[in-house]
Amino acid sequence: MWKKNESGIITPLIFCGCKRQGPQEGAAVRSVTGYIRRSFWDKVRRNPRMYCRNCGKEVADQAVMCVSCGVPPGIGKRFCQNCGAESNIAAEFCIKCGVKLASGTGEGKDWLTTLLLCIFLGALGVHRFYTGHTAIGIAQLLTLGGCGIWALIDLIMIATGSFKDKAGNVLVKK
Predict the structure, then answer these.
(1) Which residue in 4, 40, 49, 143 is a FRET match for 29, CA 20 to 30 A apart?
(2) What is the spatial distance between Cα 41 and Cα 35, in angstroms, rounded to a whole number?
(3) Same structural domain for residues 83 and 54?
(4) 152-164 burial code (b ≥16 CB/10 A, e <16)
């Protein structure tokens, strides 16, 4: 028995012999083909949690510093930022959840350079090319920054510190 929820994800209705809307923590899911582990459902649904790459503890999405270890959450290479599992330092992908690991070097693009490019050439999308978002940069170039609205939104995001480069690194204030 399968059910399609409001976000379009198909889930079985029978879990561990009882009717529930989703798998319980650590529970196996009984389906037509047998048992599917809980980790499968974590891959199907987007994991809203974020973990510190240095200590593996859960942190808020917009956290600047990890409260457990005092390091910015993106710095480090010991844990996966998506599931918190310990990872090999040289690994590019997490073995447990399969996501691409953040670079962990903290070498994001320069914040001031990106801000100035957005102020003076934002309608042409030059700041997007600088941060590695080439496809969005081309779209902004062709639409003149969405008639300036797109460039204004990017300017606000850069100024507030929520703009990231293509690798997912926060812009660095040097």
Answers:
(1) 49
(2) 12
(3) yes
(4) eebbeebeeeebb
Count of helix runs (H) and strand runs (E) in the chain: 5, 8
Listing DSSP states for 105-121 in one string gives S--PPBHHHHHHHHHHH
Domain that holds residue 134: 111-160
Query: Over the stretch 42-69, which tens digit does the pLDDT of each residue have?
Result: 444 444 678 888 888 888 877 778 888 8
Predicted pLDDT of residue 102: 72
Residue 133 lies in a domain: yes
What pLDDT, on the 0 to 100 scale, is given for residue 19? 45
Clarify whether residues 51 and 35 are in a common domain.
no
Contact present, 78 and 69 (Cβ < 8 Å): no
Strand partners, 164: 170
Q: Which amino acid, one-letter code, is at 42?
A: D
The token duo for 112 is 């001031």
Task: Give the C-alpha distances (Å, rounded to integers) separating 78 from 21, 23, 65, 114.
Answer: 34, 29, 16, 29
Contact yes or no for 79/85 (Cβ under 8 A): yes
Q: Can you tell me the distance from the alpha carbon of 96 to that of 98, in angstroms, rounded to the nearest whole number?
A: 6
Tell me the β-bridge partners of 114: none
Q: What is the C-alpha separation between 117 and 150, in angstroms, rounded?
A: 14
Question: pTM score, two decimals?
Answer: 0.45
Residue with the bigger pLDDT between 76 and 59: it is 59
Quote the tokens at residue 150: 């797109």
